[in-house]
Known about the structure:
By secondary structure, chain A is an alpha/beta fold. Chain A is built from 24 helices and 9 strands.
Amino acid sequence: MKPDLSFEQIERFKADLEKCTKCGFCMSACPVYREEKIESSVARGKIMLVRAWLSGELTPTDEMAKALNKCTLCMACAQSCPAGTQVPSVVTAARADKAGQKGLSFPYNLVYRWLLPRRRLFGYSVRFASWFQGIFLPRTEGSIRHLSYFLSALGQGRHIPEIAPKFLRQSVPEINPPPDGVPVKFTVGYFTGCMTDFVFPELGQKIIRFLNRNGIKVVMPRGQGCCGAPVFLGAGDFKTGRKMADANVRAFKNLDYIITDCATCASAMKDYVKFLADTDERKQAYTEYAARIKDVTEFLVDIAKLPDSAYRVAPEFKGKTVTWHEPCHLGRYLGVKEQPGKILKALSDIKFVEMADADQCCGMAGTFSIYFYDLSKQIADRKVANIQATGADIVTTDCPGCQIQLIDSLTRHGLPVQVRHIMELLE
Amino acid sequence: MIDARQIEQLRKIIGKENVLTSPEDMVSYSYDAMNLWAHKPDCVVLPVDAAGISAVLKFANENNIPVTPRGGGTNVSGGSIPIKGGIVLVTTRINRIIEINKTNLNATVEPGVILQDFNNALTKEGLFFPPDPQSAAGCTMGGVVAENSGGPSCLKYGVTKQYVLGLEVVLADGRIVKLGGLTPKNRTGYELMMLFTGSEGTLGIISKITLRLLPAPKAEKTVVAVFTDVAVAGEAVSEIIAAGILPAKIEFVDNWTFDKFRGLLPDKTLDTCQVILLIQVDGLKETVEAEAQQIFSLCKKTAAEVKVAGDKVEAVRYWAARSAHFSDISSRAHTIVNDDVSVPRDKIVEFIKRGQEAARRFDVPLSFAGHIGDGNFHPVVLTDSRDKEHFARAHQCVDEIIEIALSLGGVISGEHGIGLEKKRFMKKAMDPVAIEIMKKIKDVLDPRHILNPGKIWEDEADET
């Protein structure tokens, strides 16, 4: 019997697939190749595997899936590609066609198709799983094959913050106006990613307070859910991804701006149109949605145009040395490169030190770090060395995913460096 | 063909995590940076040290298994393609920078270090390793030496062989031999290191390299000049050299890749011109300023547009556009047939004119680019291997360009090596006695011909 060989998504990115000339310029850029040093790890190798799959020379075996999954989608290859090949798009599309041809394996199918799109239920599952965090979950060194719950799997052997006792959505109202006497200059929607909602709710509260104090009314629509990154980018499940995208588009319907504190969520949502727009309506809705999404630092610097005096460091961080890790999704995907530095430099009571290779991937990359925890740790070790070289007390970033990775890595190395979201630094 | 038992033995020899056998991995090691050849190996081994290379070679030699050495696999001559199957031995996991010594002005590195990583480490120390193949972001030091790599900077600074001080090499039978040393002067016996420098993996596998370094130039300046005609540009190059200036690099690209310069140079110029010269001078700040001005004035006489890059950022953008040439050309055709001839500098203009005439005669698109300053050209014919008739014409054109280069006193390969690509020209390009000596050397070092078989020599020679 001839297997179902549909390359619906790859076909959409065929130009990228064909652009690659195998020159190998991606080799010194790729964080995975840097560790593994095998051809199937690097962008060029993945392109060649996908070509061989399309030509029928290879089939979507577990090995193929592994090679496709072994990519942090950090975009460093695309940045150094003289032909402009968008390898992350090809990898994402290939994951989708692999999922289409072979289906998702248990338990990912359950988690992605059923649990993640149901925000409240997902929250409770996470809470339930958190009870067992550290009791039943062994420290594993290999890739984790049988995780029971997506987020709790991050806890396997990792030093991560506990699941918050109270989620953000349970602790703040839907509408958060500025305090009395402060006029409303902007009204924004606040997209809280899963991490902020479940793990770092105090970050969310801080962001809302900061925005309010500066005349920005914050709406946190209850209908919002997961951005979908692990589902459509990680697992290639575009069908479920569309459901999640549609829900978010509905939730933020009448808001001028959609602010995020997570670069991954922001860029995943901006990519709805690239990967998930299967109809003209969706294309239009996703395009219009993407235009309104702003990273919080981008919004503060470029749109709200707050004066330097608006940024004051919270008392607990006064006198500290601070460095900055640029999330891949912030710099390379959203193109937000200068704004965080502008805020950090405006903070007069800290010493800001730039880190070498600040824009290199930390190795988190969502599902990647669950599939390949050891590899993820190796990538992170280089980041840790760069952080250590700055002598900073605090490493700050703009993505709770990166934060978890940095906390885990610094703790593993026994380093007393705090990890903070850039917005946490502010008073 | 390797059997399952032999693969099991290889796993025992260097660890199962360093032996790859999946169909996916075999595809991954079947190609280089060209589309002209592909052949899958039977298995891939990635030793982590010289002892590992030695153990694999000893085993392969005893069992008559072909071994194709590979670094980054960014070569363009077919050198790393396992054309006879067998084992691909990849050195990328042997990748420490062992020492960078500022006093001795040398560095010792392992073969799997990526050239760009090496350059980054040297920059921090204010040091400089001049050879700069355009594949620096992926190629490895072992490959740089085994291919005797060149690049733009070779105009002033020479090619890799001018920088090799010492090598550790694993021979076909597994013996590890140390050659050369740490000092820039060394007159001990024959220059055996030079046998392995440029040997394309046919004589041994390089496991450690000591390189001579230079202090990094204090300043650089880039001049960009656009010409309406390739021959006029060639004359400008001659004038620069005649004026007693030796720039670090004089490069050129033709209008096939002008798109990469959009936004950097006026559209009107790009639309009407044929060739861009990129010239970089380096040295002390004062010298560099004066030479850049002198070059500016010389080019001004015949160029449609001349600019001195205002700052480093602008210069980097020009050079990035130049670096993108090969990949840009490659992406414009299904198949490209690339050439690497080198001609004496006083024959540059004649060579270009005759090359263009050949392309017209064979009716194939030809892009000229390369290191015009030292006469090393990369003419590229754009074709499609699926169109047999066109593909044949493309090959005829390239063959003729090689003949032209030879007739002008040039060589068939300036820096890419012979590999699979140019072996059919070897007899024409080399003295028969020299070929005989080379074959005898091969027999001494690799009597069973397990190392990179099918390369450099024509097949019948390979089988003797």
